[in-house]
Amino acid sequence: MKNNTLSLAVVGHTNTGKTSLLRTLLRDSRFGEVKNAPATTRHVEQAAINDGGETLVYLYDTPGLEDAGGVL
Ligand SMILES: Nc1nc2c(ncn2[C@@H]2O[C@H](COP(=O)(O)OP(=O)(O)OP(=O)(O)O)[C@@H](O)[C@H]2O)c(=O)[nH]1
Ligand SMILES: [Mg+2]
To answer: Which range marks the domain in which residue 36 is found?
Structure first.
């Protein structure tokens, strides 16, 4: 990872659409797991938006804040 590449973590309460937001930003309907239930995402998952060979931004999906250990 280049040091000057923007990194964005999506953090919030569980079951509030964090993974769904990332699917939209990434235009990838297969990213992560989306369910109408709490604690669906269990681990931090990295994804990148690229322009040709260049990475413009790194995105991080996170477990809901209720899983403090997972977020940490
Ligand atoms: N009405 C509505 N529902 C949404 C929206 N975005 C996501 N959802 C629904 O909300 C539920 C939870 O979505 P997720 O993306 O899994 O939420 P999350 O915050 O990643 O959940 P965890 O990983 O469990 O913390 C799913 O049933 C989604 O379909 C939205 O903009 N509007
Ligand atoms: Mg999630």
So the answer is: 6-71
Q: Is residue 55 part of a domain?
A: yes
Of 62, 72, 71, 13, residue with least CA distance to 38: 13
Residue 14: inside a domain:
yes
Residue with the smallest CA separation from ligand 1 atom 1 is 17
3-class state of residue 44 by DSSP: coil
From 14, 34, 36, 60, the mutation candidate for ligand 1 (largest count of ligand atoms within 8 A of CB) is 34
Please name the residue whose Cα sits nearest to atom 23 of ligand 1: 41
Distance 39 CA to ligand 2 centre (A): 7
Look at residue 44 and tell me if it is in a domain: yes
Amino acid at 38: P
Number of domains in the chain: 1
| Per-position pLDDT tens, the chain of length 72 | 557 899 999 999 999 999 999 999 999 999 999 999 999 999 999 999 999 989 999 999 999 998 888 778
